[in-house]
Amino acid sequence: MKPLQNLFLSALILLASCKTEKNNFDATGAFETEEIIISAEASGTINQFNIAEGQTLNARQIIGSIDSTQLYLKKLQLEAQIKATLSQKPDIASQQASLVEQLNAAKVDQQRIVNLIKANAATKKQLDDINSRVDVLQKQIDAQQTSLNILSGSITQQTAPLQVQIEQINDQLSKCVLINPVNGTVLTKYAEVNELAVTGKPLYKIADLSYLFLRAYITGDQFSEIKLNQKVKVFTDSGADASKEYEGTVTWISDKAEFTPKTIQTKDDRANLVYAVKVKVVNDGLLKIGMYGEMKFH
User: How many CB atoms lie within 10 A of CB 59?
Assistant: First the structure.
């Protein structure tokens, strides 16, 4: 019986050793990322949509377009309205041509009479009369100029709301071009070519997978042992009984306790209340969203 007892004791020691090694971490959690859902900003049929799930996109990359025919026609209509309205503006120069010509002639007569006065060949009354005529013509021209300027300005103002509408349509037209806003990988595609897009409809989900976040949970006892920007060790499974080590940085610590999620283990499995933390880890291509990881910060 002695050999059998020794074998059983050895098995218990080995099992205890494996369990101790397996639980040699401070917290565990799952990897996640900051996902962004990109939605349509215009309504219409999707003409082009050149993306696929798993594809890497660059920021400001054009990936498709939404039909903009009706918007373009509306813009042409507004431009025609502006042109028709502006055509009603008076031609100030032509309308004043007659008075300007009379004024110029009166000024010539005025200078002639001045010269005659110097030669004592004209009377003072003749000079007063021509001066009066020049003044009257000048005031008529000034009054007409003011009136025509007011009319012209009023007509120009009538086109201002139309111009604002054109600017709004230009903004809508720009949103018919689908431009990816951030660097990242397409996680899910929600729409296809020839489908109808409406403002606010999700088109695809994207995330920057160059780094991931391990969301782990620590106990109240561990809460005072961790701080922002602290460097920690993160481990993931990499085959049979092997693990891969990464360096991570604590980027967020919750200030509110919550009940331990059923799928999460902590150093003290009996803890009911835990605090969530996020650890940023550079992705070497092997880390995946939803993958479990272990964290050590001691």
Answer: 11
Are 209 and 244 within 8 A, CB to CB? no
List, as one string, the DSSP characters of 75-117.
HHHHHHHHHHHHTTS--HHHHHHHHHHHHHHHHHHHHHHHHHH
Residue type, 224: S
Query: Residue 72 contacts by C-beta under 8 Å, 6 or more apart in sequence?
Result: 173
**In 3D, which of 44, 58, 60, 46 has the Cα closest to residue 190?**
46
Q: Would you state the structure tokens that stand for residue 208, as one six-digit string?
A: 């920057």
Unique residue bearing structure tokens 């219409």:
44
pLDDT tens, 180-215?
A: 999 999 999 999 999 999 999 999 999 999 999 999
User: Is residue 20 within 8 Å of 168, Cβ to Cβ?
Assistant: no
Read off the pTM.
0.70
